[in-house]
Amino acid sequence: MTVIKSSLRTPAETAAGAKPSRPHPLSPGVRRIALSAAGITLSCLLSEPEHTTPRATVIAVHGSGMSAGYFDGQAHPDLSLLTLGARLGFTVLSLDRPGYGHSATQLPDGQPLAEQSVTLHAALAEFAHRHEVGAGFFLLAHSFGGKVVLTAAADDVDAPLIGLDVSGCGHRYAVEPDRLPEPHSRAAWGFSWGAFGLYPPNTFLSSRSVVAPTPSWERREVPTWPDVLPDVARRIRAPVRFTFAEHERWWRHDQQAVAELSGMLTGSRVRVDRHPDAGHNISLGWAARSYHLRAFGFLEECLARRGMTDSR
């Protein structure tokens, strides 16, 4: 317990002190690349299937105060979305969003949601120009990243996305927006992580390389999401799956809240799942592998439905 308590301070201290003390270590088969997106250079982690073209490409989008390494957790070999996806025949690209990673110097304040959507679409176009993407793009996102991919899906008019899988993001905060704790603050710890036992040993130590400062634009836009989402939701056409962790504390996920959220996406097929034995940072916990497998299962369903539609 002493080791955990000591390392518990590390993510918040890292965020407050700007850059992590060392680069994020990579799982086998994962490599670093950079993408040029509308004049912005985004750092990314990439994993591709060996000796075959990908069946589709998963774009992983991290939340506030994290980085692309969130989807390549190092505390246990089963955590990495990137290695799992490649073994299943999919390319997985985890992006450092605008204001994170390489672009933090160029965009120290980050970007508003609408601009992040433009940047994301530019990054997808650049990636498709340089790499095989298979059947297309499937967006998988966590927390604030969910807001970004939902906005991007609403703006997606030319090349429809295969689908979206969003965890840790809803439409009603569990507390009043003006009372939400600052990311990385001691008060936010229980919201973002939850009980120690939900995570493998050394999770909090290894997350030193994953945690990052939260750009000011994101902090500014947090209270506005409940008002922004209804317009975004009605324009989405791609299938969407929302996942709330059993111990999610940032968002309401009771029956009424889930019904309201589903009812907003009038032009899309919507599924809402709850994942047992998981905290908000689901992709860093013991539940990561089972959550990721369910996400790939949803991708399989989207591909099957697309095939059925195309063959009619």
TrEMBL record:
Cited Gene3D superfamilies: alpha/beta hydrolase
Keyword Hydrolase annotated: yes
UniProt-recorded name of the protein: Alpha/beta hydrolase
Natural source organism: Streptomyces sp. R41
Entries under InterPro entries matching the protein: AB_hydrolase_1, AB_hydrolase_fold
Limits of the AB hydrolase-1 domain: 58-282
Keywords, comma-separated and alphabetical: Hydrolase
GO molecular function, one term: hydrolase activity
Region (Disordered): 1-29
A Pfam family of this chain: Abhydrolase_6
